[in-house]
Amino acid sequence: METFNQILESEIFTFRSYSLKVSQLVSILIIVVITKLILWGLKKVFFRKNKSSKIDTGSTYALLKIIKYVVWIIAIALVLESIGIKVTLLIAGSAALLVGIGLGLQQTFNDVVSGIILLSERSIEVGDVLEIDNDVVIIESIGLRTSKAMNRDDISIIIPNSLITTSKVINWSHQSHQTRFKIHVGVAYGSDVDFVITTLEKSAFEHPDIHNKRLIEARLLNFGSSSLDFQLLFFTSNIFRIGKMKSDIRRSINKNFTDNNIIIAFPQMDVHLRSNNSAT
Fold first, then answer.
1. CA angle 208, 201, 227 (to 5 degrees)
2. Which among 229, 227, 233 has a CA at the least distance from the CA of 205?
3. Where is the Mechanosensitive ion channel transmembrane helices 2/3 domain positioned along the sequence (predicted)?
4. Residue 218 gets which letter from DSSP?
5. 43/65 Cα distance (integer angstroms)
6. The domain that contains 196 carries what CATH number?
7. pLDDT grade, residue 125 (50/70/90)?
């Protein structure tokens, strides 16, 4: 036992009046291991509870992320204390330095505060489909400074959290997982309006990703300069890949129009020539 105590009290290295002992290194390892075990246990408990309750995955992820940062801050403070560095004195002594760093890293701190807001407010959650700067992305993870997303081209995008909290962002998944979309088409004047509406609704009805096919609706929207303008409305949960879905429906519309001799209009202009012959 005495030999073990001697090993613990032996010094690894010495710098001036400071020395790092084996016991301090062991304390650091114990703190790190315990921290990881606590976080692992919390993750298991939270997601097991999430499966058996009405708490959504996004809320569980946000709460777990906040707890993770708090636990690691406490762990770092304990590590500093274990190696003889007083955290309170360190903060007080480096106040001026922290002000300078804060000014230099103002944008970074802004992103961090925005990350805390996102994780606590939960207006944006993992799996949400967002439209930011005319780009549609799906959120894969929310970090303390940045969030990771993937766009429709399967390109991974790193988004500063401040961009999400300060910009106008459309959250397609915020209130419901089903969203209404529109397709516009113009047909030639003289077409049977009722038959065109029936054909449009049939074209959407054929697509397997339509949600609640009873809500499919086609409307005569306007009398255009060269066409009768129609609008097709439908609901779907396939928000992220809506571009392909619209393309499929447009192809079906084109096929059904061709089969039923419905002409898709195109811009036309009539030119009238008038002869102005004067008698000689």
1. 130
2. 233
3. 65-106
4. E
5. 10
6. 3.30.70.100
7. confident
Of 30, 57, 35, give the one whose Cα is nearest residue 46.
Answer: 57
Count: domains in the chain: 3
CATH number at residue 133: 2.30.30.60
Residue with tokens 């959504």: 56
CB count within 10 Å of CB 223 equals 9
Cβ atoms of 235 and 249 within 8 Å: the answer is no
DSSP result, 151-208:
ETTS-EEEEEHHHHHHS--EETTSS-S-EEEEEEEEE-TTS-HHHHHHHHHHHHHT-T
Q: Which domain holds residue 133?
A: 123-171
pLDDT on residue 174: 66
20, 46: one domain: yes
Task: Give domain status of residue 272, yes or no.
Answer: no
Question: Structure tokens of 232?
Answer: 């097709």
Q: Where residue 248 falls among pLDDT bands split at 50, 70, 90?
A: very high
Residues 184 and 245 in one domain: yes
pLDDT of residue 228: 93
pLDDT at position 250? 94
pLDDT grade for 242, boundaries at 50, 70 and 90: confident
Task: Give the distance from CA 37 to its chain's centroid.
Answer: 29
The pLDDT of residue 17 is 64
User: What integer is the mean pLDDT of 106-133?
Assistant: 79
As a 3-state breakdown, the chain gives helix, strand, coil percent values, each rounded to 5, of 50, 20, 30
Instruction: Using the predicted structure, report yes or no on whether residue 54 has a pLDDT greater than 50.
Output: no
